[in-house]
Amino acid sequence: xxxxxxxxxxxxxxxxxxxxxxxxxxxxxxxxxxxxxxxxxxxxxxxxxxxxxxxxxxxxxxxxxxxxxxxxxxxxxxxxxxxxxxxxxxxxxxxxxxxxxxxxxxxxxxxxxxxxxxxxxxxxxxxxxxxxxxxxxxxxxxxxxxxxxxxxxxxxxxxxxxxxxxxxxxxxxxxxxxxxxxxxxxxxxxxxxxxxxxxxxxxxxxxxxxxxxxxxxxxxxxxxxxxxxxxxxxxxxxxxxxxxxxxxxxxxxxxxxxxxxxxxxxxxxxxxxxxxxxxxxxxxxxxxxxxxxxxxxxxxxxxxxxxxxxxxxxxxxxxxxxxxxxxxxxxxxxxxxxxxxxxxxxxxxxxxxxxxxxxxxxxxxxxxxxxxxxxxxxxxxxxxxxxxxxxxxxxxxxxxxxxxxxxxxxxxxxxxxxxxxxxxxxxxxxxxxxxxxxxxxxxxxxxxxxxxxxxxxxxxxxxxxxxxxxxxxxxxxxxxxxxxxxxxxxxxxxx
Length: 495
Description:
By secondary structure, the chain is mainly beta. 12% of the residues lie in helices and 53% in strands. It is built from seven helices and 27 strands. It starts with a helix and ends in a 6-residue tail after the last strand. The relative contact order is 0.16.
């Protein structure tokens, strides 16, 4: 039975990884002046200092995952294979899984004047976070008894699972707040109206194990444990009777709206050039995803104290091995728990609040290097609440970039200390990137990495900022009668 359970667990985790493909991290263009509307997701203030009057991104998609729970075998982007398998990783270690995905639809940025700009759009996003205590696993584990024997030294066992999926419509506004000969300071804010689509959590703690006698044979007993799990009632809609249209209507009826904000600032140190959009150094700081999504508990959500006597390994196995769906869990749990409580009302899952510090340095010509540091904040400010985590920590991205073409080589270290080397290519409106090159060449690395794609359209070169012929203009400054004024000029590094 345990092998069957192991395959079910692996399949469940694989489902979590690709949780929202039916549904943020375009890291190559972080800090770039050509990021346009996509830049608002990393820093709302970045939408002003852009050498185009407008840009439109009708579609952008990205997915990313990181885990040591499992391995996806016989699959790479170059050679997908026909016999893909998923296996649980062996070893004795703390397990983790993080995943985030988004689809952006009809995102746009418009410069209102030389000092301010707006951006707006819609997206569907999801995050998955899984953490466990140290767990030992071997591929020879055949049942619950084997698992408990293997993990006696790891007692007490614990695990946390959080998922958060939502749709959002956002609007960003940014403007110049300070400008002098030394530099320019921009500030921006994004306000998002969220619709929580689906959320869930599981908290298991204090699972103590002890050797004992089970059916006159040596076995193991669960002596204590706290278990709480909940998921949104919106997910129950898909198990209800009725047509697909009726199920969708019921699903949307069970979703709720909230508000979230992001704020940011960006400081530009200009280059020794007459072109206004040339810079020597750009430094930004932003607080992102300050908000939460609200969900109604499903009727199947429970909290349980596992303090009954004689909770044996064989009882646990017999109780849970034939589960068919989530609705079967409460009755099964009642058989082994000392007390079980129904969870009612609503629960909140906080979005992955974080501080992002970004520095973008012009090297020479069309060469730049960008550094991006992400500091998670949810664990500090809402540590007693439910929240999902962003996996970004540190990224360094050298790039060669013009108006039409770009080559990017992001090197990143995530919060689990995994090092990835990625790459991206921009050709006209198309941006195509990969988070981890091993996804392309290796057949057992696709569980760590991901990819992104975006289509961004900008005005043609024959139009300047005011729509007149003569090239996509930048502003340059000069002194006339002791007063600094601006005039239009073609950008030095735009092709």
